[in-house]
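Bit of a strange request maybe. I'm writing a small parser for structure token strings and I need a real example to test against, not something I typed by hand. Could someone generate the tokens for this chain?
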Amino acid sequence: MRILIADDEPRFGYLLASQLEEEGHFVKTVTNGEDALDELSNSYDLLITDLKMPGMNGLELLEKVQKIYSGLPVVFMTAYASVKTAVSAMKFGAIDYLKKPFKLEEMVTLVKRIESNSRMKNEIDFRRNEQNERINIIGKSQAIKKVLDMANKVANTDTTVLILGESGTGKELIAKLIHSNSKRKNHPFIAINCASLPENLLESELFGYEKGAFTGAEKRKPGRFFLADGGTLFLDEIGELPAGTQAKLLRALQEKVINPIGSVNPVKIDIRLIAATNRDLEQAIEKGEFREDLYYRLAVFPIFMPALEQRKQDIPLLIDYFLDSINYSGSISSEAVEQLSSCRWKGNIRELFNVLERATILAEGNQITSDNLPYRKPTENNLKKALDSDMSLEEIERSALLIALKKCNGNKTEAAKKLGITRRMVYSRMKAYNISNEEI
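Reply from user aminoacidic:
Good idea to test on real output. This should exercise your parser:
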């Protein structure tokens, strides 16, 4: 820490500074309030000041510090300690005081506590702020409109929401939308993926732990429940929650308290819970993999996120949004948009965006074309379009073969693999349909 000491006794200030420097701190000393106020412009983490000094005394210095450097921790030293003095100091914002004479080790211990609290506050602020990002729900399809309508209706309640749907459909975005439209919007939105951590780490991430709770727990760590206090906690992939943690989560929801690991004192929590999963939880209950009582606690208000297959009319809008979000300076051909709109996206929006990102790299010139997109087998809808058209079976087969060859840069072996036929059949079909290497 960067520490400034203001004391009109130079010898004492020197001794205290030396002791704190041995602990690894940067320490500067001044002998009056005016110099302290000037020196603070060089950015300090803590001010330690004597109460009684010539000129500007400690209380006057504190009052100015609170106006100019709001939030800077201030500790008083005084040989004139009294209840009145302590109350005055705390009233102006001092976080603690020591009565002279005191052992230098007492100040070292106090500074360690202040440093620990400061680090924890910084971690909490960071982890809360890192969740803040722009919310964009793109689409005009009836499927997504239904989701948005349900999200808006439940937003201003404290009802627990369970968002169901395939991976990559935007479940976390809907959770953030609910939070941003709720009465808790000015409080944190904290998210955690339950499938990303092993059980022992997941529990400590959710509920936190006390210093010394286990080997390596060198300081107290706040859990996600604590960080989300007053706001919304989003538990993604809730279906992957281990059995032991399921029980603790159920208790937290029922009793609105948590027990950090290593603590005997329950901590009250005030959160709104939103969970999400791509699993069939009712099936998981039948297999004994998920608690039935927890399921009913979570599924008070279920929202089903549609797969991209169910909202294909939104694909052109999603394409425009993605290219705009990455500041792509080029365009995309209508043929490429049509091809992307006719594909089946098993990875949903996430997969679509990955394909577009790849296409922007491969595109030559200022336009993404069909040649920049990976070959995909036609979907049932795509085949239906072809059958409803005036194309003959031979024309459909020729078109599929030509697309596969183009996507594989003329490599007959690779094209054969994609089409599920032999290399010899590729050559015979090329000859039968008069497909030349120049056309490819």
